[in-house]
Design brief:
27% helix
């Protein structure tokens, strides 16, 4: 895969397995995620497993939108990734969390690849009030990882 359009990383003083559990616990995702305020599994698979699907409810100020996501990687303690679509068919992004154990806990890296075409970049920018998705995602990823760190280290 090409270089991500945005990424952030943080050291967390908690085991990678615990951090992975937080990342894949959709019921509590909104407690630490900067933009996705809620998510829920849809379809027959209700856990982090390749091919599982979920719907994310997102917010930026007064703007709200939902996305449909398909899990592309689910490796406990190592990686969680998903492909995001709008209206079920329009490419939006790929998101990935990578966890690397360290002596003190783990290093968490969050990455995203913007997969929108020109039409979706315009429409998406208007719908979300985010004309510069790279800058917005970079700032949100830093906030998200700080929140994740607090949640993981509190347990």
């Amino acid at each position: 895969m090409s270089e991500p359009s945005a990424s952030a990383r943080i050291e967390i003083a908690a085991p990678a397995e615990r951090v992975y559990e937080l990342i894949t616990d959709l019921a509590n995702l909104g407690a630490w995620n900067a933009e996705c305020v809620r998510a829920r599994w849809v379809g027959p698979v209700k856990q982090a497993r390749r091919g599982a699907r979920f719907v994310g409810s997102n917010r930026n100020g007064a703007r709200r939108w939902s996305t449909q996501c398909t899990v592309t990687a689910a490796e406990p303690g190592r990686a969680f990734a998903y492909h995001v679509r709008a209206a079920g068919v329009l490419d939006v992004a790929v998101w990935r969390f990578e966890l690397t154990p360290t002596d003190e806990g783990c290093l968490v890296e969050q990455k995203t690849w913007d997969t929108r075409g020109p039409f979706m970049r315009v429409v998406g920018g208007w719908a979300t009030n985010v004309p510069d998705r790279v800058t917005h995602n970079s700032a949100n990823m830093a906030r998200t990882l700080e929140n994740l760190k607090r949640a993981a280290e509190r347990r």
